[in-house]
Amino acid sequence: MVYSASILNGEIVIMRLPPALVPLRNGTFRTLWFASIVVWLGTWLQNTGAGWLMTTLAPRPLIVAMVQAATIMPVFLLALPGGAMADIVDRRTFLIGTQVWTILAAALLAILTITGGMTATWLLILTFAIGIGAALTQPAWSAIIPELVPREDLVGAITLNGIGFNLTRAIGPALAGFLILLGGSGLTFSLYAASILAVIGALIMWRRGRRFTGLPREHLFSAMRAGMRFVRNTPAIQHAMIRTIAYSIPASAPWALLPLYVRRDLELGPGMYGVILGMMGVGGVASGMLLPIVRGRLSRGATVVTCSLFSCTGMALVGLASHWSLAAFGMLLFGVGWTSAYATIQAAAQLVCPPWVRARSLSIYQLAQNGALTVGSFGWGWVGGMIGLPRTFVAASAVGLILMILARYARIEAITAVPLAALLEPAQGPEAPAAELVGLLAIPAAG
Questions:
Q1: What is the widest separation between alpha-carbon atoms in the chain?
Q2: For residue 426, what are the CA distances in angstroms to 72, 225, 251, 398?
Q3: What is the mean pLDDT of residues 365-381?
Q4: What is the DSSP code string of 204-223?
């Protein structure tokens, strides 16, 4: 048990923190985390509203699946340059810029929907624009976490982000279903745009110290090349990428097809769609709270295998469901696997990255993850049109089990040293001080 001290009315108050909440003892992380809760809630309002709106505008499996694909496809184009930019410019300023872009796209989405000008094409275009903001934000946001917490809190901070994300996922879709009944998808889009202001405000409040390396800054393309060289020479990141691809391809099926499945096959409305999707968040919260305990008993690889079994079982139950309660229970199991699988794999990738190349390396990792989700969304959308949605969920479960077995050779349990060649890359493209490189030689990295 970890203790946290605070001053209340002139007296020192000692509080015992549960293991999952330990990273909240770090003030700046705590502020940004609570701001993230607000914007994640808004994100679930937007995602749920967009998925449900498309079932009205173009109720075909492939088109509905394209909403999810349009959200994550920008990663193919912008994750690596976004990661490189986050490494060579001030990350706080960069993140503020990405949030401004996102709020503009979200505001236009809300205006077109409220005024009746929304079409399936415009919904995909503006969802893609919001995805651009997410693609630029993800690597920079991941890279600032080690600045906000000590190394011993890093895995906990990543897990806590997953808990917060899934807490909002438990609430957001159900709330979105109610709001859609109340004011249509335009209301959910408006609230999403407003939620982004919380993150912008938190980033403005963050007084990030300026970091002088004593060396000239890298250029964008040389920074991108350095990131690719580092990943190419670091097997630990490559193994994490293989594991996340193997999990993401089958796991994309519920994201892509659940809105149409609930509306067409279960014959339910937006309120029940929100409840069923929200059960995934409930499972994610429970999984995140239990992960610190599980980490002490299972290796990383065994944790990912266990999570894959939960998710595959959940998808199979959704496909076999004839009543909403079984589908909801299936999404609960799916969410249990989703949160802990991604938290475990990402931690293995993040711990191996030295600061000078962290954002761009994580952007390549996230490119693999989101690329698999994109390919899976298109693929399962096509399969759904061929064999029906219930059979598609069962097929995704079977594919998940096969990929889980095939990917087990990519080990992420071992603690290995950062390759010397990778540490010496800044000599070809200066982006880290020499003292930092010397210090990295003694830091173990998670494999």
A1: 68
A2: 31, 11, 37, 44
A3: 88
A4: HH--PPP---SSPPPPHHHH
Expressed as residue numbers, the domain containing 422 is: 2-206+216-446
The rounded distance, in Å, linking the Cα atoms of 148 and 406 is: 36
**d(Cα 360, Cα 224) in Å, to the nearest integer?**
7
Higher pLDDT, 196 or 428: 196
Give pLDDT, residue 440. Answer: 25
Cα–Cα distance measured from residue 394 to residue 440, given in angstroms and rounded to the nearest whole number: 46
Q: Is the pLDDT of residue 444 over 80?
A: no
The model's pTM is: 0.69
Out of 82-91, 234-243, 325-334, the most confident range is 325-334
Q: Regarding predicted confidence, which is higher, 11 or 207?
A: 207
Domain contains 211: no
Q: pLDDT at position 428, please?
A: 36
CA atoms within 13 A on the CB side of 141: 24
- Contact (Cβ atoms closer than 8 angstroms) between residue 44 and residue 52: no
Three-point CA angle 65, 193, 363, nearest 5°: 60
Angle, CA 317 vertex, CA 336 and CA 394 arms, to 5°: 105
Q: How far is CA 198 from CA 40, 88, 191, 202, 393, in A?
A: 11, 25, 12, 6, 37
Q: What CATH number has the domain bearing residue 23?
A: 1.20.1250.20
Could you tell me if residue 134 is inside a domain? yes
DSSP reduced 3-state for 321: coil
CA separation for the pair 262, 324 (Å, rounded): 8
The answer to the question of residue 414 being in a domain is yes
- The per-residue pLDDT for 19 is 64
Check: CB of residue 95 under 8 Å from CB of residue 148: no
Least trusted range by pLDDT, from 68-77, 239-248, 411-420:
411-420
Q: What is the C-alpha separation between 220 and 267, in angstroms, rounded?
A: 50
Alpha carbon separation from 364 to 99, 243, 357, 359, 367 (Å, rounded): 21, 14, 11, 9, 5
